[in-house]
Amino acid sequence: MSENQNVNQNSSENNHKKIPLTCIICPMGCNMEVEVEPDESGQKKVLSVKDNGCKRGEQYAAKELQNPTRTLTSTIKVNGGVLSVVPVKTAGEVPKKMLLQCMEVVRRASCKAPVKRGDILIYDILGSGINIIACADVERSV
Fold this sequence. Notes:
Elements: H1 3-14, E1 17-22, E2 31-38, E3 44-50, H2 55-66, E4 69-70, E5 73-79, E6 85-90, E7 94-95, H3 99-108, E8 110-112, E9 120-122, E10 132-134
Parallel strand pairs: 5-8
Antiparallel strand pairs: 1-2, 2-3, 4-7, 5-6, 6-10, 9-10
């Protein structure tokens, strides 16, 4: 191998990082080691995943490092109900970077009783395409 090829190979390997990551897809909680390098846009490109118990760990690592998302759970105030709040959650996952903004919208929201499980209480939160839905029934107070 020429000296130039050796220098290029070493500089490429220097961009590689090993990141510890705990998988949250199943109760196993595998402690994985993910090797990444930045791509042209600066995003982390997954090169390898070690110590994952299943294929889902590999998929989780790539998604978590490139575009992390979460399910948001909270409560919304209920007016005229037997309970003062109703538990809610997102109908899908929202980008992790939007969680605090979504929480602010949810915190300011309220609804009228009765509320049925599955009712959409907030449509398309912050343009994410994800709805906020009720997780319980709340009857009207008498």
